[in-house]
Design a protein that fits this description.
five-stranded mixed β-barrel, Rossmann fold, 6 helices, 237 residues, EC 2.4.2.1, single chain, 10 strands, alpha/beta
Amino acid sequence: MNDKKETPHIKPNGVEIAETILLPGDPLRAKFIAETYLENAQQFNSVRNMFGYTGTYKGKKISVMGTGMGMPSMSLYSWELIHIFGVKNLIRIGTCGAIQDHMNLYDLVLAMGASTDSRYVHQYNLPGEFANIASFELLDKAKKAADQKGLPVHVGNILTSDIFYNADPTALEKWQKMGILSVEMETAGLYLNAAYAGVNALTILTVSDHILRREQTTPEERQTAFTNMMEVALELA
């Protein structure tokens, strides 16, 4: 599928990139997934230490690659994976900060929609507001996989924000009132790229902290929760 295609940011050196790819923000998490879950994993990218691997999971070919933090980084990598390397199913796996009272640390969040304070959508010159939504096919599969594992899971709208340190201390309370489940920094860019290209995208998140309750997980505690998220995502291959 990839022949000898490459970009300034992804140089596969002949290693195939699968049509389904998992996209953690942290490239070391991509390495962990490849080493822990994939059979016959081959590294297809190391440019800027943004590690990418392709292998098989339960007999199905799947890739995994880091994306870095924020919409610009996610949007760059996902655009190239879609348009240059032919990826059809893009599944972000990452962490988020919960802002609803009924949510707890380690819960899973399936991003049915991704509201945003970003202006990334302006490039499409749309005559209105666009709703960033997930692929229902991937969303449905992920919900069923999470339910089968008995995992606490929330499905709904999240916020993709360009701002980590916000000068407006009331911003999150306003989003909370609109039913936003949690906050992260990548999904809206992924969903916009996927919608424009006509491919599938889904974000699966683990609650690593509850922002309004000021609760946080430790790195050790996160590992088990992240493993649950990874295993749900792998079932979508």
